[in-house]
User: Fold these one by one.
Assistant:
Number 1:
Amino acid sequence: MLLGLLVTVSSLTSVPWNREPTGQSLETLSASTAVSFDNPQGLALPGKGTYAVALRHVTIDAKRPSTGEVQRIRVLIRQPLNAPAGQPGVVFMHGAGYGTCDNSFGDVANDLASAGFVTAVLDKPVWSTNDLTRDYPGSAVAYDQVVQYLRGISSVNPDKIGIYATSESTWISPYLLQRDKRIAFQVLLSPMVYSPRQSLGFFVTQDFSLVGANNGYQSIVRRLFHADLGKPGSNFDVRVDLPGAYAIPTLAVYGSKDVMTAQVEGIEHIMDSAHKAGNRNVTVRSYSVANHVLRLGDEADEGTPLADDYINDLTSWATGTVAGLRQTSEPVAGVTIHQSIAVPTELRANRQLTVYGAIIHIAMVLLLFVSLLMALAALVLKIVRFLRHRDAKVFGFLHGFGGELLGIAVTTLATLVLFASGLGQVIMAVVRLGWGGAPVEDPGMMYWSWPVIQVVSTLVVWAWSRVLARLIEVAQSRGITQLPPRKDAIRDLVSGREPVLASSRFGRVYFWVTAAAMFGVLLVFAFWGFFIY
């Protein structure tokens, strides 16, 4: 019956997930990523290194519209020296993390400035938010403040200012474009395209598979990304597919080693949205061996270079676009674009699943904590009694129940530790993969720990069944289970005159608290799908 209950819990908490189509690919129209334009008038288009660059800092007060909170933000302005008036501008938008104006986009911003663009890199507007509560519409207002600052520079053409958005900030750029219709162009580096829930669900599921994690661990992702965060300010389901998000000239850039982005479906979505908005000026470039931030190698290492030819291609596209020239190079070029699984667009918040999961996890932790406190109290009491040369027995377990409880508890907790270790290894492998590292050849614990936990959990259920059978057997011998119960049997059991489990009340309470804690662990295992065979 206990095993049937746990199997039922695993089945009821399972979440369907459509991974099809798998193995999608998009053939590019040219292997060369070079960008060229028809230039009948022979306009002199500057390139990287054309101008010397001057740097200066300014400070703005970015007010969060929803709360009135103000963040003091520094902005690093790079200007081309001796460039003619009417210079274009670019505002850089941060990806995930807490980037500042001084440690972000330095090489790209400097190279574009040397090609005639006034560039602005600002401290990331975060206010008091965290990764789960980032204010994307509010951030768009802060970035637009910097756009307005560039428009106020006398040497800048106010109608030739674009944005350079990477990763997380591509969830902000649609709000900026909705707010400011004068933005002239956008460069999207590894654009996420879909909502945070869908994009992150895709990224984590794909990467769990790439690092060789057991399918069981991949099922954890399905449950996790159906969580209903529910609290005000959560951005998990913020709308990012806004009208006009791709209505201006757009350069979308990807790396072949980017394991975070749904590239094939993302490009199709960008193209479709742009065409619906009447924009045919969309360019896609895919670079070999480049990671999520278009660097070569492991991004955890300092000084990793950008993909070959990327800066030249970016500069060519940006200068030709702001000059109003017609592009003659292929719109989609570079290495073939791949995507292993489909974007899980069916992901939705599940309130019932979230509430149930929270209850059993909190209950498990509390019961384990109480059981640990009682064990420590028993240890102290045993030491005190021993020092006073009194009977050191604290629990007084009878009929071997103490030994069986200890064996089951140790086995269950060891299995819980194995689960935490296996999941931890999977997470670390995914992090290394995301930074551009290679997956390990032998997944080891990431694969075998799941079936081991399944087997051990089943054995623990069997062991508990034996304990319960022994309890019933002893109770029957005392006349407790017969109908009606033997005279005074219940009173003798409760008072401890004829105990079944232990001679001390403390031992009896400890047994049931620990049993409840171990059952809580099994319910948590069932929640995550360990009893689906």
Number 2:
Amino acid sequence: MSASPDSAATTVIGACPHDCPDTCSLRTTVVDGVATRVQGNTAHPHTGGVLCAKVSKYTERSYHAQRVLQPLKRSGPKGSGQFTPVGWDEALSDIAQRLHAIAQRAPEAILPYSYAGTMGQVQGESMDRRFFHQLGASLLDRTICSSAGGEALAHTYGGKLGMRVEFFAESQLILIWGSNSIASNLHFWRYAQEAKRNGAKLVCIDPRHSETADKCHEHLQLLPGTDAALALALMHELIRNDWLDHDYIARHTQGWEQLKARALQWPPERAAQVCGLPVEQIQQLARDYGTMRPAAIRLNYGMQRVRGGGNAVRAVACLPALVGAWRHRAGGLLLSSSGVAPFQKAALQRPDLLGARRPRTLNMSQIGDVLLHPGDAQFGPRVEAVVVYNSNPVTVAPESVKVAAGFARNDLFTVVLEHFMTDTADHADYVLPATTQLEHWDIHGSYGHTDVLLNRPAIAPQGLARSNAQIFRDLAAQMACLDADFAAAHFHDSDEALCRTAVAGTAIDFDALLQNGFATIPVAEAPFAEGGFATPSGKCEFDNPRLVALGINTLPDYVPNYEAPTPAFPLAMISPPARNFLNSTFANVASLQRMEQRPLLELHPDDATARGIADGDRLRVFNARGEHVCHAALNGRARTGVVVGLGIWWRKQGDNGTNVNELTHQQLTDIGRGPCFYDCAVEVEKLNTP
């Protein structure tokens, strides 16, 4: 990819597409039609010219030697990875005929499966939704990452709303709760570091002694799934010491007396036993939070991936109102800011194409059980076809032994849109080559800041790759030969036209996006300084009576994990992402693989010694659902009784063809129907083989 001396370099402004709150603005240097470098955009304040190690290697993904660059048709057993190249016309015609035949009998037997492989509005949730709505396919409950926390926040604040991230730089106390920000929220970390240089105290709350914990003044290394107990104990101390903003509580909250009664049941001594923390550490955190102003909480989604994750988010979300932190622009809480995004989702997705039909909804976090279900009157028809895009469920979904078994069904017709031959692609009947972010149009919001970003294609599609939206346009054209409804004009909108549709009639000027690559959504500096929450009451709802209809406690409470340690499986396991991976997206990039080396399980030295395990030993990690083989890391990051399985490696990269999701289960969170990846009990033993 070296350029000649006479080659002229151009720069194209784009956006990072990945599931990360930072949503960086990118500058791609192109020479002779080849992308030679991807950098952060210095003109975008939140990016500040800085990218993470993953995305700075983005050209390695786009030009990867193993990239899928032509349509492939399965020629061997499912899971074998044996495929034969075919032309687009043959692939699309066959897929359309197969889907049409199923839809004629039972359209709900067809299931789309997608998530945040790209978070773009166009390549992630536009033409694909139109296609499946017209078809009448089953709807997908997209819960696998953040639904527990997102719905909990909506039940408390009225939506995914919170602080503006840039004002953390002015905070005097920052609680980094359930987040390894250095690895997964780098640009927030820059603001936190600025605050630290100005005298702020940083506190990390995390079961793992993460890279972020290394840099904070204090670390509360609580047991997984006990965050609500800690939050209630903090409330107890705020009440006992009268570190409360009584005026804010009276004017801008609902259910204070009920919450107060609950919190007074949680003295620090009780929470200390549940959380596995020293009483004094809880008391000191309460003192800091009650007396330091302004105080801010950066909450992240790791802590809601347990049975009581929704209640935990509700409990933490109540804290800022108790001390009046929302009065300050540098006070409050941020979990997600995506609720301010102005996108015209109905115009993009066209749910009206369903007409009077009301298809069932299937939960992506239970895809293993879904695909293995034989079908009945309550469930509906057995799933006969799955179209997977922007996701790799055989790798990332819980209880992957069942997921792999479901995708291995010979009677399941599977189409996968992909860049690489992932674990899921290996099980497909057709693999269709998709463009990377450097090759297509898209438009992005963010759940970590309040800007909208435009992505313009920097290079031509590689090989025969097509954008997701183009593939669904082309499938619709094939379907139109069988069903005239697919010939409608809304199946012809170009990717650029869809970008324009996303912000049409909003405060975002598309011409400004074309010129600058980003635009800021008008948002108040201190959104809840005078109340004005998006709830029906307009208040922060400690007590939410509407939760009764959902069978949920109206007040936040501590809900224990499904899987408490037992003699058979005495260790709690969490499985956060390895620092240089993002879900399963970068697990095949050679430079990042070299950094991570191999699948690891972090153990506390006491737990390792009790099992005769030394650093680097080959391990069997197991429970009743399965077993995973990896290597021991005694690096000081795990606490006693907890092991950390860093992910997410592809299954076929594992020593025994598995990854940590061989061990996780498909039970759901208390709120939001989300997965419980960090609510998992295991045992570990040393393997004597090398």
